[in-house]
Structures are given as structure tokens and as C-alpha cells.
Design a protein that fits this description.
Layout (H helix, E strand, L loop, with lengths): L5 E5 L4 H11 L3 E6 L15 E2 L2 E2 H4 L5 E6 L4 H12 L3 E4 L5 H4 L4 H5 L6 E6 L14 H7 L20 H24 L4 E5 H8 L1 H8 L20 E5 L4 E5 L3 H7 L17 H12 L4 H10 L4 E3 L3 H6 L1 H5 L3 E6 L3 E6 L23 H7 L4 H10 L2 E2 L3
Parallel strand pairs: 1-2, 1-6, 2-5, 6-7, 7-8
Antiparallel strand pairs: 3-4, 5-14, 9-10, 10-11, 12-13
Helix pairs in contact: 1-7, 7-8
GO molecular function: transferase activity
Organism: Streptomyces endocoffeicus
Protein name: CoA transferase
Length: 392
């Protein structure tokens, strides 16, 4: 769908590479510009997760892209980049605010020679403001944005979510902004500066509870395990006799039937929120009496909203996950067989596949220089001076 769109990526860690991977999956020609030592994610990975010496963290966010190595402190290297960017449709960067300007690659510098350029900056807090120079990282933003304080039972420590969901949502918002800008360019002929940041992404994830708060409704974390400060019971995870199960937003009439507990019929609808802790406690007592399989069968029969509490082993074996082909397998020349989450959207029933393996460092430097019209002698000169480097 994005065939013919050239994206030049100055990104690292997760938010930026994930955003560019979404575009690359859709057919954009993503050229990842890396320093001589390689992008950060090549030498870092979660629980020291390296396969055959290759970072899983790098592999999960850089498929379908090409890699060029450029010394950004070298004038010839920067001249090559400006030549590349003069013909680009999109620049996406995730440096701290001000870095690209200092390199002579800021929006105002580049739009003078390429007014059609869509320029996307991804940051922690935004390109200006009192926090612009603070380190922006997922768990820090979860804490700052109120997300951690809203999660967990009353009296427990504030609890960050167990995944970098703010990074990932920031990536999706960045890709969304780029696609909107490209669509707008079709009408105006002009590029746009697009900005996404982790703080905005974290607040956008809390659209519903934050809206309640902004309009005078105050909620508190639940002592009995309700998973939202603003929802009625049941809404959360309950212990069974041999495990756990999640139950969500079920009427008191239905609860009375499925739990065989007439007490639920005595609750007036306008009292359900005020009595949510009592309701949850009653539900918890009943669910604890029987094993998980008993409740899954009973809840299914009565059309109660429920779900098993899966760990990742359960998730990847789940029949719907398998049916959706959510996990893809790639064969990497160094790491071997690697399984990764696939592109999350289907188009005419199909997910975009693998066109290019996550690139080796500098794998496509010569190829890109050749496309820019550099002669063999000029490419050799750039390599010898260290302005650029290739995989060899």
C-alpha cells in the first residue's frame, strides 16, 4: 500500500523502530540510518535475549528495512544524507529534541530543499516545554501519566503494566500521523511536521478514565481487586479453587443465576457502583469454591463475559491467536529460526509478510549510494574516509 514511499529513519530503542516497521510492512522503502557502532537496539535486549549473538529486541522492530551507516559528525556523510533526504517522502527521528537541528537536519533546514517532506519527531514529552530534555522511557511515563497509580489493588504499590505499551502506542500514533500527513500532501503538495510523544500516548491510552476525572468523577483503586477505579463490579480477576479467571461487567440478575446467590437480586441499579466492593467480595467467595474449568463451562452456558488468565505459553497456543496467525517465523542467517509478533492488521484478509530480514549493520550502504547516483569511485572515497560504512 505504501510502495513508492521512501522513509528515512533516524530511530532507535522501541518507539521509533516500531513506527517505521509498521510503514515498512505496508511496503514503504524504509532506510535506517545508523551510526558506525549501530543503533542502540542492536546491543541491548530485554533479559539479555540474544539468539546466535543477535538481539531479539533489534529483530522485533526492524524487519522490511534497509540499513546504511553514516558518520553524522562527518561533513561528507551529512552531505550524502541531505542528498538522500532531498528525494525522500518521510523523515522519522527519535533523538532528543534539538539533536537533529544541531546536525543541520532539522525540519526548517530540510523543507527549504524538499517542501514535500513529511517530518516526524518522536520524543518522550514533546519538542518543547519544561520536560523536553528529560529522559523519556516507558515505565517513567507510566508513572508520570497516572497509569501506574491507577493500576493494582488499593493499598498496594502503584503498578506499571507489564509491557512497554506506551512505547508501542506512541509508535502507532507516529505512524498514524505520518499516514495522515501523506494523505494531506496529496491535496496540498506540501509536507507537514508530525510530532508524537510518549506522554501524550500514555494519556491517550487513558482516554476513558481521564475523561471521567476531568468531569468531576473521582474513583479509587479497589481493595477487592476491581481492575478500574471507575467501574462497577464485577470487573477483574478472581481466584478459583485451582487458578484464576476474569469476569467483566455482568448484571446482578445474571450473577444471581450463575452464582446461585439470590442476594444479588436485592441490589438496586443505582447502588451498583457504591456497593461494588461488597458485590466483588461476594463474587470472590463463590468463585473460590470451584475450579476454573467449572466456571468456564458455567459462564459460557449463561453468556457471562469471562476470560481465562493466560500466561504467554497459553497465549501462543490459544486457538484464536493461532487462527489469526499472530506469530510469524523468520529464518535469520545468524540467529536461525526466530518467532515474532506479526503486523497487527489484515488487509483483504491478509497480513503483510516479510520482504526483508532485519538488516545487518550497513548492509545496504552501497546499494543506497548507488541509487543516489554516486559513482563507484565516489563510493570508495566515502568508505575510505569513514563518512559511510558498509556491512563488509
Amino acid at each position: 500500500m505504501l510502495s513508492g514511499i521512501k522513509v528515512v529513519s533516524f530511530t532507535h530503542f522501541l518507539q521509533g523502530p516500531s513506527a517505521t516497521q509498521l510503514l515498512a510492512d505496508l511496503g514503504a522503502d524504509v532506510i535506517k540510518v545508523e551510526p558506525p557502532q549501530g543503533a542502540f537496539e542492536r546491543s541491548w535486549s530485554g533479559p539479555d535475549a540474544y539468539v546466535g549473538g543477535v538481539s531479539v529486541f533489534f529483530l522485533l522492530g526492524n524487519r522490511n528495512a534497509r540499513s546504511v551507516v553514516v558518520d553524522l559528525k562527518n561533513d561528507e556523510g551529512k552531505a550524502m544524507l541531505r542528498r538522500l533526504l532531498d528525494g525522500a517522502d518521510v523523515l522519522i527521528e527519535s533523538f532528543r529534541p534539538g539533536v537533529m537541528d544541531r546536525l543541520g537536519l532539522g525540519y526548517e533546514h530540510l523543507r527549504a530543499t524538499n517542501p514535500r517532506l513529511v517530518y516526524c519527531s518522536l520524543s518522550g514529552y514533546g519538542s518543547d516545554g519544561p520536560y523536553r530534555d528529560r529522559p523519556g522511557q516507558d515505565v517513567l511515563i507510566q508513572s508520570l501519566s497516572g497509569l501506574a497509580a491507577a493500576t493494582g489493588a488499593a493499598g498496594a504499590h502503584p503498578t506499571p503494566v507489564g509491557a512497554s505499551l506506551v512505547d508501542q502506542h506512541g509508535a502507532v500514533l507516529g505512524a498514524l500521523g505520518i499516514l495522515a500527513a501523506l494523505h494531506g500532501r496529496e491535496r496540498t503538495g506540501e509536507g507537514t511536521r508530525v510530532e508524537s510523544n510518549l506522554l501524550n500516548a500514555a494519556l491517550d491510552l487513558q482516554l476513558e478514565p481521564l475523561s471521567y476525572f476531568l468531569n468531576g468523577f473521582r474513583g479509587e483503586r479497589s481493595a477487592s481487586g476491581i481492575s478500574s477505579p471507575f467501574y462497577k463490579a464485577p470487573y477483574g480477576v478472581f481466584a478459583t479453587a485451582d487458578g484464576h479467571i476474569t469476569v467483566s461487567l455482568t448484571s446482578t440478575d445474571a450473577l444471581a443465576k450463575v452464582l446461585d446467590e439470590p442476594w444479588f437480586n436485592t441490589i438496586e441499579p443505582d447502588q451498583e457502583y457504591a456497593m461494588r466492593e461488597h458485590i466483588n467480595a461476594r463474587i470472590a467467595d463463590r468463585i473460590a469454591e470451584h475450579p476454573t474449568e467449572y466456571w468456564t463451562t458455567r459462564f459460557a452456558e449463561h453468556r457471562i463475559w469471562y476470560a481465562p488468565v493466560n500466561d504467554y505459553a497459553d497465549v501462543v497456543a490459544d486457538p484464536q491467536v493461532e487462527h489469526n496467525k499472530t506469530v510469524m517465523t523468520i529464518n535469520h542467517p545468524q540467529a536461525g529460526e526466530i518467532r515474532l509478533p506479526a503486523h497487527p492488521v489484515r488487509y483483504d484478509g491478509q497480513r503483510p509478510g516479510l520482504r526483508r530480514l532485519p538488516p545487518q549493520l550497513g548492509e545496504h550502504t552501497r546499494e543506497v549510494l548507488d541509487e543516489l547516483g554516486y559513482t563507484s569511485a565516489e563510493i570508495t572515497q566515502l568508505l575510505e574516509t569513514g563518512a559511510v560504512r558498509d556491512h563488509g
